[in-house]
Each structure stands twice: as C-alpha cells, then as structure tokens.
Amino acid sequence: MFDIHCHILPCVDDGSGSMIDSVEMAELAVCSGTGGIIATPHCNVPGAFENFWSAEFDAKVKELNDILLKRNIPVTVYPGQEIFAYGDIIERIKNNELITLNNSGYLLVEFDFSVSERELFKYIQSITAEGYVPIVAHPERYFLFGEAPETVRGIRSAGALVQVNSSSIMGNFGYYPEHAASYFLANQLADFVASDAHSQYSRTPDLFQVHEIICENYSYEYADLLLDENPLKVINNKEIR
Ligand SMILES: [Fe+2]
Fold first, then answer.
1. Is 241 within a domain?
2. What's the pTM value of the predicted model, to 2 decimals?
3. Number of folded domains that form the chain
4. What's the whole-number mean pLDDT along residues 234-240?
C-alpha cells in the first residue's frame, strides 16, 4: 500500500514531534503493509503552519530516508504538502513556496471545515485551469459533505479527486464523517484512502485494518484501488481517470 497523506516529517507541524517518532511511525506503516509514504505537512495555514517549502524540508525528507535505510525499514518517504486553501495557491506553486505530491501533477488541498460549496469550486476551478489535479483531503470531515454527502459528485465532476481518512471510515471522528465516508465508498465516489496520521499512538499510519474493512464491506478490488493503485499513480505521476 501507499499512503498519500501523512504528517510524518518531524517537528514541522502538529504531527511527528521528533525523528524518533517519525521512525516509529514508519515502522508501524511497514508492519501494516505500506511501502511508500508521502510526507504532507500542513502548510499555507495563516497564523499557524506556513511551512513554505525550502531546502530545509528537502533535507528533512532525505535525513528520514537515510535513517530508514540504515535501520532496514523498507519504506520510502516522498516530499509533499497538505496545502490549506487560502490565498493564491497557484502563484505560490510557481514561486516554489508550495509543492505538489512527489512533484507530480497532483495537489493535496485541505479546506476549512465550514467551507462553502462556492469557495470549494472556486479553488478546484483555479487549480484545474492551470493543469493540476486537486485531491481534496478528507471531504467527509467538512460540514458541507457531512450534511449532504452526495455533493461530492459535483466536485468530482469539476475535476477533483477525493481522499478519505482511514479514521473517518473507522468512526473515530464521529457520526457525520463516518456516514459521509460510507456514502462515498458505497457509491465508489472516493479515489484514495490515506492515514492522515499524526503520530504512532493515535491517528496512526496503520492501514491494515481499514484495508480489511473495505475488503469486507465493499470489495478487495476497491480496497486495492484506494490504498494501492491510485496512490502509486500519484507517486509516479500517472493519469488516474
Ligand atoms: Fe492532514
């Protein structure tokens, strides 16, 4: 499996708090069957995590990979960001302040939980107009989709892909995210499931259980598509639709 949303980079956001935590998160991911992780620190969040990309981030990704190699932990960490929808994202990509997932054509974009449908479409259209593919991070957690999960059809028609959190499927965020996630999965409206892991203790990078749940409740083929095939296409910058 491949995890396209994980706060595994140490000491940059509210995810991993140290290199030891990062290594333990990687070990847990490997034990659950994950072979590649895109590090997606929060960024472009005004007044909180700006985290504009720099040589320091590249160095951290390299340092983590070097340690994993030295310890024989068979997983590769790729560069990425979870970009908060604020201001001119495209301009910041052009300025190399924001980056795509493993330098592909895919952007992981998160929105305020109370985002309006209008604001969501505005961002999706501005990103697709520049030839990038927006992957909307955990829409099942936004109030809009919690109340009306079928609204997700519109953003997919507008060119966005949908990433669901493993914790939402397992019910860890409460009724509405679980209900919306179930609706997306039952109607094949999700494109990825990722951990959105923040630590090795809670919201972990363990994807084994969610893979099992999707196999049991939907199909083995769909579990593979969400957790393996589509994420690998992002890493390799291959077309999904
Ligand atoms: Fe996240």
1. no
2. 0.97
3. 1
4. 98
